[in-house]
């Protein structure tokens, strides 16, 4: 695996080799060479899948390879800093996710400010599902809240790690329902799910796709989805907001560029991604993944991320979440 510094130097060298043409003409001709798409997580996860789906489509549409490079570590901040230091020429894309909104408050000394330094050009969203082990007697969210209040501090909820969107969703549920659960962090969602199936923890907020078979086989019980509307894959599972007004949590995956990237490049990629997300075959693929397209302008994405950053900042501070 290449060292992140080596990737940065390659990106910088590519920018230096560009022909001496005007900025506007160059932007209109974009892309004239391969684009590096930097993902802050290992291959195979939701963030990586979105980058590969979009990268393949953009390669076909724009006639240049979109090369996916996984630079995992530090809750995606390593990849984010790498792109923040790369030339603002559109040849270094960042694959980001909801962790970016959490990290803004979670980490004190980041070498970037996501809202200030990045523009987001495409997003998909996936709801989480609140799951409980069958040993938990509650069959609805109100029943679970009553059960948790009667067993304060005795219920454990798992997550994919300290400061992860899965922990944040659970902490916000605790705050809004005034219950006490013990957080148990794992190194990823897969081991957290394994321990939930084994009954070692009782609750998990997680993406729907990996757990649908467990729900249908009654190995786990789904109490709610965390978005304002129901999930097409699980139409019988109610929305959390039906029981906890104002509750909304989702994992989202997005493509970002440095904010000072030429507007022509930003607009071109934004339009191409939005078009791809509305194609029938892509919509079917997203439905299979438990995801929905979020098609909007970069300005609208910016407002969404600012709202997410404010919301999760309140959760991080109230729950006193500290990075490991």
Fold topology:
Blueprint: H1 4-16, H2 23-29, E1 35-39, H3 46-62, E2 66-70, H4 77-85, E3 92-97, H5 99-106, H6 114-117, E4 118-132, H7 141-150, E5 156-159, H8 165-177, E6 182-185, H9 189-197, E7 203-207, H10 212-216, E8 221-225, E9 250-258, H11 263-277, H12 280-288, E10 292-294, H13 298-319
Parallel strand pairs: 1-2, 1-3, 5-6, 5-7
Antiparallel strand pairs: 3-9, 4-7, 4-8, 4-9, 4-10
Helix pairs in contact: 1-4, 3-11, 5-13, 8-13
Short description:
With 324 residues, the protein is an alpha/beta fold. The protein has helices at 4-16, 23-29, 46-62, 77-85, 99-106, 114-117, 141-150, 165-177, 189-197, 212-216, 263-277, 280-288, 298-319; strands spanning 35-39, 66-70, 92-97, 118-132, 156-159, 182-185, 203-207, 221-225, 250-258, 292-294. 44% of the residues lie in helices and 19% in strands.
End-to-end Cα distance: 25 Å
Please report the number of helical segments. Answer: 13
SSE succession: HHEHEHEHHEHEHEHEHEEHHEH
Proportion in β-strands: 15-25%
In quaternary terms, these chains amount to single chain
Instruction: Kindly report the CATH topology of the largest domain.
Output: D-Maltodextrin-Binding Protein, domain 2
The CATH superfamily of the largest domain appears as Bordetella uptake gene, domain 1
Q: List low-confidence stretches.
A: none
How would you sum up the global shape? globular
Highest-level CATH class of the largest domain: Alpha Beta
**How many domain regions?**
2
The level of helicity is: 40-55%
Number of strands: 10
